[in-house]
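Support request from a user on the community tier.

User writes: "When I paste my structure tokens into the form, the page sometimes reloads and wipes my input. The last time it worked, I copied everything first. Here is what I submitted, just in case something in the input itself triggers the reload:"
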């Protein structure tokens, strides 16, 4: 773009391969006008970027043009309502604006240097090759902000950004409160998004270095369109365009259920969507407030039954298929394995848990938690192993209970087998007694006596066995 662009002219800027289009638009039943980018090749109008989302034009009189090496939107009285805000620097004129085939709207100088790009200022949608997260060199933090409603592109209540501290992960905020987190990147996906499986046409890229902490993805097949967006209701969703159906297909979305709510079960509690109630204490812990827990107010969480001794006798309970706890206060070492990670945790009195930092190829790397564990859940499919530190006393109690349960189960099985054998023996003898046919009264009496001798002990045996089985089952339940 070298000249101006006006609403009245109805002209637009189109990317070289006609994939994206930039121009002015006004949402349905609205008199406000916005500058935006949408897919040109897709029949359903899908906006992926909006420039003046919080400063719309009040009517259809507006102009977009380059002014003092900036892109500026002017209203009907020639007052600027939005600008790229470039100041100073070594800028070689002429400056031009261009829409690229990846949907990036850029300002470049005569040396083809990018002076500004829309990819640094996303709205609610992450496009392929766009990055979310921190650029340490430029100081830019790229995040997504939802639309206010599906028909209102102004800034909504929800925001998602990458927390670079500790073991980086995405958080979703509703206003100032955290409502969801993605979990850390564990090699091939985010910990809390088990549905984020490899796709043959998509490559994920997570970078954590001194220069940047970012997440991006790219599409490897032509004519495949896929986006990651934050909806006006706070859902992070992966959408792919299905040409045959002429609509967007939702591949996955988060949060999905009550267990995805941030800190649903408090400290040291974990959520399991398959249990009722959903909140449970980690083994070796108990509800902080029994009365509130009974009323299903689980926000107070759980506390240790026994304090850690930090004398080398502490151990770990292994929790499988878990969502890793909040990782803000963690230490990460990608060079060691799970055995070294365990030793390091035991030698640190502040360590409360550890896990692999990368789940690929059998697991590698080490992440250690040094504070309370919170926002944990269990998955039917997905998740990873989490090792929680417990006092030796609690570990011994767990082993004793397991041994009692196993012993009781074996005892019950043996008694059931014996009762079956005796029943079969009694049934066989009963059939034989019926088969004896004679008109002699003495023989009939003898038969009755035989039946009594066989049946009475058998009934007593069954009664005794039932009482024994009941005691064993009751003992197993109590233990």
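"...and here is what came back when it finally went through:"
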């Amino acid at each position: 773009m070298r000249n101006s662009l006006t609403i009245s002219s109805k002209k637009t800027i189109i990317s070289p391969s006609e994939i994206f289009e930039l121009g002015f638009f006004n949402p349905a039943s609205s008199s406000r006008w916005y500058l935006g980018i949408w897919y040109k090749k897709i029949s359903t109008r899908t906006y992926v970027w909006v420039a003046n989302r919080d400063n719309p034009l009040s009517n259809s009189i507006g102009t977009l043009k380059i002014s003092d090496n900036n892109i500026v939107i002017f209203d009907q009285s020639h007052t600027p309502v939005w600008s790229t805000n470039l100041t100073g620097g070594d800028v070689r004129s002429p400056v031009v604006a261009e829409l690229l085939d990846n949907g990036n709207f850029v300002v470049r100088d005569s040396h083809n240097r990018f002076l500004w790009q829309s990819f640094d200022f996303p709205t609610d949608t992450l496009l392929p090759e766009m990055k979310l997260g921190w650029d340490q060199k430029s100081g830019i933090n790229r995040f997504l902000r939802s639309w206010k409603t599906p028909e209102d592109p102004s800034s909504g209540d929800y925001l998602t950004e990458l927390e670079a501290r500790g073991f980086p992960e995405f958080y979703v905020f509703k206003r100032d409160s955290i409502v969801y987190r993605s979990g850390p990147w564990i090699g091939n996906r985010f910990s809390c998004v088990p549905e984020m499986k490899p796709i043959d046409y998509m490559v994920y890229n997570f970078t954590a270095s001194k220069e940047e902490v970012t997440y991006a993805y790219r599409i490897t097949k032509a004519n495949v369109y896929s986006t990651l967006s934050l909806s006006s209701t706070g859902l992070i969703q992966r959408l792919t365009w299905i040409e045959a159906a002429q609509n967007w297909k939702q591949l996955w979305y988060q949060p999905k259920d009550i267990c995805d709510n941030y800190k649903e079960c408090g400290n040291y509690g974990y959520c399991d969507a398959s249990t009722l109630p959903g909140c449970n204490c980690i083994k070796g812990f108990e509800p902080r407030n029994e009365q509130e827990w009974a009323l299903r107010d689980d926000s107070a969480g759980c506390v240790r039954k026994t304090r850690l001794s930090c004398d080398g006798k502490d151990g770990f309970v292994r929790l499988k298929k878990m969502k890793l706890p909040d990782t803000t206060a963690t230490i990460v070492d990608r060079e060691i394995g799970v055995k070294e990670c365990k030793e390091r945790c035991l030698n640190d009195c502040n360590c409360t848990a550890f896990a692999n930092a990368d789940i690929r190829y059998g697991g590698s790397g080490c992440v250690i938690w040094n504070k309370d564990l919170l926002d944990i859940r269990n998955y039917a499919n997905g998740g990873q192993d989490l090792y929680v530190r417990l006092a030796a006393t609690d570990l011994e109690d767990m082993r004793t209970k397991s041994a009692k349960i196993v012993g009781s189960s074996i005892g019950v099985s043996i008694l059931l087998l014996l009762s079956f054998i005796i029943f079969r023996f009694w049934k066989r003898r009963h059939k034989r007694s019926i088969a004896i046919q004679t008109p002699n009264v003495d023989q009939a009496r003898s038969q009755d006596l035989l039946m009594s001798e066989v049946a009475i002990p058998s009934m007593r045996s069954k009664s005794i066995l039932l009482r024994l089985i009941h005691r064993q089952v009751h003992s197993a339940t109590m233990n």
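Agent notes: The reload is a front-end session timeout and is unrelated to the input. Residues 1-118 form a domain with the Agglutinin, subunit A fold (CATH 2.90.10.10). DSSP finds four helices and 33 strands in the chain. Escalated to web team.
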